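Sequence only, no structure available. Ideas?
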Amino acid sequence: MGGRELSSPRPSQALAASIELLSHWQHLNVLVAEDHPTYRALMGWLLQKLGLGHELVSDGRLALAAICERPFDLVITDCQMPRMDGYRMARAIRLLEQIKKRQRVPIIALTANLVHDDPQRCRDAGMDAWLLKPLTLGQLHEVLLHWLPGLPVVPSASNRSSVLSAWPTRDSLIETFGSTQVVSQMLGSLLTEAWEDNALLDHARNTLDTSLMAERLHRLVGSLAFLGATELESRGSQLIEQLHSHGVLLNRSQLDAFQSDLHRYLVYLNSL
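Reply:
I predicted one. Tokens follow.
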């Protein structure tokens, strides 16, 4: 990293005491694209104080190269940079996610001027939020709490067994519907529709389209109910209500968890 080394700032004891250090953050990684050497060093120091792994680069091209090499849990980018600015970089990341079918990574704009780098321009480029310079440890911490993944919940062996035992088997489906041929045709049709709906859930989440998200969740809930997947069906119905009340953005973590479990269930059905 070029430029003079930045000496470590000393936040007040009151601020330091108010910062919640989360143990699972030590397993997460943040990518920072910032062309100013001193501010880049400051961002590295702040992320280190929060216990986060991080990589610092000086422009959008280097950031894009880094994200092609390995996954990151969040990207923070300056809007105005040489070679490739933050807007072009964000659009390139969103395109890469579509092509590679990767999970959407939160992108946070870092700017000193919301007149030139206005929020709508940030959203249009595919960014999720923004931070204003000069940035404090407390402001960064608050944004990261909202956008970084939460603590993963690993179900116990007994919980996994109970969930799996509630899933239908091929024999139980044949007993219910009375015919091997009917079950094969039904599963094929339901899985085709469910995978299409799941793909549209990805699109709705990425575009924050609450109406499309609720519509596709409703179709999926109907398919799940048809096969008796009561736990996923119940969660899907609750999510529809939460979407109507609070939209996609505030339900993103629940949506991600639901889609992850849904994907596992569809793969299981495909094996029957």
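The radius of gyration is 22 Å.
Hope that gets you unstuck.
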